[in-house]
Amino acid sequence: MTDVVAPTVTLRAFDPADGAETAAVVAAAVSGARPREVMPPDDAPHPDDWTLARERAYARFLRARPAEESSYLVVEGTAVVGVARLRHDPAGVETGVWLARPARGRGIGTVVLGLLVERAAAAGAARLVADTTPDNVAAVASLRRHGADLREQAGTVAAVVDLGAVRARGSSR
User: Fold this and answer.
1) What is the pTM of this model?
2) pLDDT of 3
3) Where does the record place the N-acetyltransferase domain (predicted)?
4) Which of 5, 26, 82, 136 gives 20 to 30 Å between its CA and that of 107?
């Protein structure tokens, strides 16, 4: 598949087996995100600090992504500024995105989510789902902008985008 380009943002297929790509993702995470923002928590002290062991664990986490998941580099200009993913299952497609701090608050997440919605709809999925926290105001706004039905429960915001409606809007253009 060719790269998909939106204003200043490129969503490019990510091959975690490619050492250079994985190193670029780890570097972006270390310089612009907390470990808990990009990978499952561990039991080590100081959960917001990057250590060499955590960097290596994150690289292993990236390489161990399941086959039903498609991962993408979020690139601004030539810099990797985050990672996005689509995980396919019978019920639809689950998505997740993280962006480095310098890429936040500038609409990049909204552009990326739009590209992910388009890819999931083009693949024929019925729905796209995502989870975030109520305090992630930017993610909630982006999900709302892309037509998500939002439900808050037990400290989590669950979002569902009806991709049939997305395809119908696209065919009427």
Assistant:
1) 0.88
2) 61
3) 28-173
4) 26
E strand or H helix that includes residue 35:
helix 35-38
The domain that contains 17 carries what CATH number? 3.40.630.30
Q: Answer yes or no: are the C-beta atoms of 9 and 75 closer than 8 Å.
A: yes
- For the beta sheet containing 156-162, the strands, ordered from the edge strand earlier in sequence to the opposite edge, are 4-6, 9-13, 69-76, 79-89, 92-99, 127-132, 156-162, 149-153
pLDDT (tens digit per residue) in 134-145: 999 999 999 999
Domain containing residue 49? 4-171
pLDDT at 59 over 60: yes
Nearest to residue 81, comparing CAs of 99, 55, 58? 99
pLDDT of residue 129: 95
**Using CA atoms, how far apart are residues 13 and 11, in angstroms rounded to an integer?**
7
